[in-house]
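The freezer alarm interrupted the setup, so I double-checked each line after restarting. Inputs confirmed:
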Amino acid sequence: MKILSKKSLVSVPGSKVTQIVLSSPDIAAKALPGEFVVIMADKKGERVPLTIVNADKKNGTVTLIFQEAGLSTTLLGKMNVGDSLYAMVGPLGHATPIKNYGKIILVGGGVGIAEIYPVAAALKDAGNHVTTILGARSKDILILEQELKKASDEFYVATDDGSYGVKGFTTDLLRERLSKGSYDVVYAVGPIPMMKKVTAVTKEFNVKTVVSLNALMVDGTGMCGGCRVTIGGQVKFTCVDGPEFDGQLVDWNELEKRNKVYFGKEKHVCELDKVAK
Amino acid sequence: MKEVIKIREVPASQRSSTFDEVVLGYGEQEILQEAARCLQCKNPVCIQGCPVGIDIKKFIYHITKKDYAASYLTIKEKNNFPSICGRVCPAEYQCRKSCILTKKGSPFASEQAINIHFLERFVGDYGNKEKIGAPKEGKDELAGQKVAVVGSGPAGLCCAGELARKGIKVTIFESLHEPGGVLRYGIPPFRLPRDILDFEIKYLEKLGVTTIPNYIIGKTKMLDELFKEGYSAVFLGLGAGTPSFLNIAGENLGNVYSANEFLTRVNLMSAFKYPEYHTPVNVGKRMIIIGGGNTAMDAARAAIRLQNMSGIKPNTAIFYRRTEIEMPARRLEIEHAKEEGIEFEFLVQPVAFGGDDNGHVRKLRCLRCELGEPDASGRRRPVAIANSEFETDCDVAIIAVGLQANTVLTNVTPGLKVDKYKDIIVDPETMQTSIAGVYAGGDIVGGEGTVIEAMSMGKKASVAIVDYLKSKAKKV
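Predicted 3D structure, all chains:
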């Protein structure tokens, strides 16, 4: 669980995204695209789920990418090469079913782009025609652009402010693609509002849509039920039943509200961050 | 008949703002007086009430002679964890219920029954303090054999301890970051202080047991790989890890917790020390716990402590669909909960939660019930009364209505047979599963039980594992 390397991907006011490579041969040996780990930065820390961005079986390493969004990820960001995480367990969740679907569109927004990457690479290897659409607020917070370009047959970027690619949203580009051609699957990972909008667009075109959910978790092994989501009227646990689900069946409003249940507390503790270490 | 010696406890007024232990236990004078009440029956029926068959008569006899070391070793012959069991065993349904001093036909122990568990606790704490330990049984023929134990709850700990005492090299694989299973995430520190739990687990290390946390068999490694890595047998103490829900409207509103989640946040993640520890838990103005078992009591008592510690006027209630007598919780926990100001609402059945615009729970709607005919459990079934619906305020709800099997391992292990509840099927004599060399026990076999029942299964499996290893050694 030692940090072997650390790279800042984004560091602008209001947005810090960092990539770390950790030594964990047993997790690396088993990890597949779409799976995640739960980590604890230190003994007093929270258990935080993070997608496995890359697993290097030969060197026994896993790569994680995280955005500093609260106390726990901020403390994780302060850890350096040579430090060890207090805990890391996995790989958790179900892997993305990788096969040749035909033509597939991957939509990634914000730090969700990190989750798109391993899936894109695996789908491309499986012979799919991969179209990737990335979205970010502006050019300086776009991550993994070169890596994803390589893993894609077609590649598009939308930025909110128009500083790069097309000015607008990923869903604008998605609609354009879907109206011009026929696609077999859309796979989307990003902020909830983005995934929600993606499913609204794909519904019009009747394209199967897979999303990877980011519900709050504690153990990550099906023990607490904190990550429960409603999928087509049925309660599922994101950690053991997901994290990927049919996007058309997700109760987005419920998930959005459940994910905000500690907002009051987090605001309070983020100010404490200044004294935490 | 001499009078029962009362156990010393922290008064309710002093204990409800801390997670420190409530029951202080007996001192030496008290233990001698209580032990002297034991009739030393010719036919000690109490022993039949102990799932691991501790020689209760003998260990109490040693107490009366002030030979606490001998008493400790007597317990240790059958139970490696007297300080844990002396605190969490529902003795009133087990040894104390069997005690001759309990009135015949009573649903649980009479007050007059010897306080066997408190005696055990004293002796356990004494032995731990004096570092008496337990002798290794050192059977050379099995030395060097490797056995894997999956899960470090009561069943796994017990099985590991028994095997280690025979010189077997045991490795425990635990999915969480700290060992103990339900003893760690489920039982709050005010019932089982963490130094006691840590001590009893450390004792296993001294016997040569290695514990690997953050390791999930079925994810990080598969069951068959353990055999390839040289383990000769595996014990599965996976627990009943999946919380049941009520399946009623509004159950996914914010601040509706499973008891597992609430207690894991509080106990394992130390949310009661937030923000020093970083995992939060939300504390409400009116917290309602649904259920009537020990988990419900633990959750309620944790909840009212959190209210007190957060400067919120204590207002925590337990809603149960039967009456107090049918509650499966330990009587002591029910008494403690009442003393601490927890309100009990009996004969009520939740039908829906109501929420606000933020998606947070605000109301609980219930029906009143009456008791009908006995059901499969022998308890009278609650029957809802028509038109009895009422609504109550509720801004944190905790659902403690039971657990089901965790299927992370069984789902990915072909050949490992499970029943319709996804519990692992075993031979009840040996705890062997459908796979040779693989044994199971605890809540993953036959559903939820007590700590000591789980330990009993772990122990039974350990005996069968030893036989299995011996017979395998002969064949070679």
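Quick read of the result. Chain A has a mean pLDDT of 92.
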